[in-house]
Amino acid sequence: MSDDIARLLAESLAELPTAVDGNHEFEFTARTVPDLPDVLRTDGIVITKSHRVVNGCWRFDSLNIHAPRSTMRGLGLLAMSALFLPPGEAIEVDLAHGASEVKRLRIRAPWSDPFFVMRPVSYTYFPSIPARHPWVGDAPDPDDLPAFLLTDREELGGANEDDWAKRDTVVGFGSAWGTVRLAAFLLDIGNPECTADEFQLEGETGFRGVAPLSAEARFWLPGSFGWENSYGLA
C-alpha cells in the first residue's frame, strides 16, 4: 500500500471534531492546515470516468469516486488546505491504484478575478451529515459550487476523440465557496458518524451540485450500491 493521505494527515485529522450536535467546531486557517509536500501519492482512491447524454445531444462527463471514509476525510483536509494556498499554486495527488482511470488530482487554490484577488482568512467547520444531493435545499449560485474539470496533465484539452478519451487529470475545485463546500462535504462523508454511503453531485439537468462546465461526481463508500470490492480499498 502507498498512501500519503493516511501517513501525512493522520495527526491533523485526529484533531478534527466528529460530533454532529452543532457544539463542536474547528477553525481552519493557513496556520492550522498541515504542511504538505509538492506531490502526494495514494492508492486508496479510485476515480473512473463515464458520461451521460441528455436529450440525445448534450453529453456530461461523469466521475465515479471510490474511497474508504478515512480517505474521503483526508481528501477533504487536502481541499481545505488548498483554500489557503497563494493564487496559482496547487496540491498534486498521484492516484496510484491500477484501476483508477484518473491518474492525477490537481487541487488548485480557489479561482478568483485576475485583477482583484481575494484570499480566505479562515473557515469555521461544524460537522454535519449531508444529504445524498447535499446542497439542493440551499439553492446556491452555481458558481459557488465545486468544479471538477476533466482534462489532461498539461490542461490543454483534447484536439480529437482519441485525446478526449485519454484525459486522466481532474483539476478542482473552483471558487473559494466551491472549494470550501467540497472540503466540508468530504470531511462530513468521511466522518465515522455518517452512515450514508452514496452521494451525487449532478449538473444543471439534475439536482445541481457542481459548477458550470464541471463534470458530475458520484461518491461511493464501502457498502454502497456502486462500491467495487474488487478494488480492495476497504
Descriptive account of the structure:
The protein is α/β, with parallel strands linked by helices and 234 residues long. It is built from four helices and eleven strands, in the order H-E-E-E-E-H-E-E-E-E-H-E-H-E-E. It has helices at 4-14, 69-82, 161-165, 176-189, and strands at residues 26-29, 39-42, 46-54, 58-66, 90-95, 104-108, 122-125, 147-151, 169-173, 198-201, 216-220. It has a five-stranded mixed sheet with strand order 2-5-6-9-8. The chain has a four-stranded mixed sheet with strand order 3-4-11-10, with no helix packed on it. A hairpin with a 3-residue loop joins strand 3 and strand 4 (58-66). Helix 1 packs across helix 2 (69-82). The protein is globular. 36% of the residues are buried. The mean pLDDT is 93.
Distance between the termini: 12 Å
Order of adjacent strands in the largest pleated sheet:
2-5-6-9-8
In helices, the fraction of residues equals 10-25%
Q: Tell me the major beta sheet.
A: 5 strands, mixed
Low-confidence stretches: none
How much beta, percentage-wise?
Answer: 25-35%
Whole-number average pLDDT? 93
Question: How many domains would you count in the coordinates?
Answer: 1
- Series of secondary-structure elements, N-terminal to C-terminal: HEEEEHEEEEHEHEE
Q: Which geometry do the CA atoms define?
A: globular
Q: How many helix segments? A: 4
Structural class: alpha/beta
Tell me how many strands there are. Answer: 11
The whole-angstrom Rg is: 17 Å
